[in-house]
């Protein structure tokens, strides 16, 4: 068996084209331009790159995007003061605090200061709590992207045995909740799970989100399983980045699999754009 590739790059491109059309309609019919503001604290090179990519993606679909750059030594109150202004600005529909913030800051407290109706990243304590209740305004973009990718390929979730390897608040935990909401039977695992390989072999849908290069081996994959690899790891001496799954071997057993890169990653930004458009519609009272 050779798995079919779940092409996140092409799927995200299609979604972005759909959003661009929707943005045109919002401008022409309602005079509304969805707007995303990103708060960047410090100059972490990876974060600077990610923020630039997000702004470029917004502009490509006709949205507005602003970046608020703060020094790395900013205080908790200085960061929250910026968020207060963005919360109160009716022209700003979505707010994202670039993760991670400098270690001297309380990230959860900062995220909690983002208006839940503008939390398009979906990872504040309030957004995650609402997700647990099944009432989320917005869902964390990477897990949401995985669910949308399954839907776009017509892959059923209901009744399936899902295993999520990873328990972060931005990926593993919300992914498990989304799968549960869609009536999968979900097991959450992590690097300390006893007999992890055996648990993975039970999965009809396997989500790899542990952040360790090729930790999940090909023979851990149940024949015919769907593999969603959210890992992105740089390995010295390798000419390309790799995921958390041993791709080539896993692809011989899986029915569907996401590549790294080009799988889950592009879907993340597409979902950020989609969430921002939805935030704009809700803020302006627009039903479509």
Second-tier CATH architecture of the largest domain: 3-Layer(aba) Sandwich
Q: What average pLDDT do the residues reach?
A: 95
* Order of strands in the sheet with most strands: 1-9-8-7-5-6
For CATH, the homologous superfamily of the largest domain is named as: NAD(P)-binding Rossmann-like Domain
CATH topology of the largest domain: Rossmann fold
Which strand-content bin applies to the residues?
Answer: 5-15%
User: What does the radius of gyration come to?
Assistant: 19 Å
- Uncertain segments are none
CATH class of the largest domain: Alpha Beta
User: What fraction, in percent, of the residue positions are helical?
Assistant: 40-55%
Class computed from helices, strands and strand pairing:
alpha/beta
H/E series: EHEHEHEHHHEHEHEEHEH
Care to count the β-strands?
Answer: 9
List the helices and strands and how they pair.
Blueprint: E1 4-5, H1 8-30, E2 35-41, H2 45-60, E3 64-70, H3 76-88, E4 94-97, H4 107-112, H5 125-132, H6 141-152, E5 161-165, H7 172-181, E6 185-189, H8 196-200, E7 205-208, E8 226-229, H9 247-251, E9 256-257, H10 264-283
Parallel strand pairs: 1-9, 2-3, 2-4, 5-6, 5-7, 7-8, 8-9
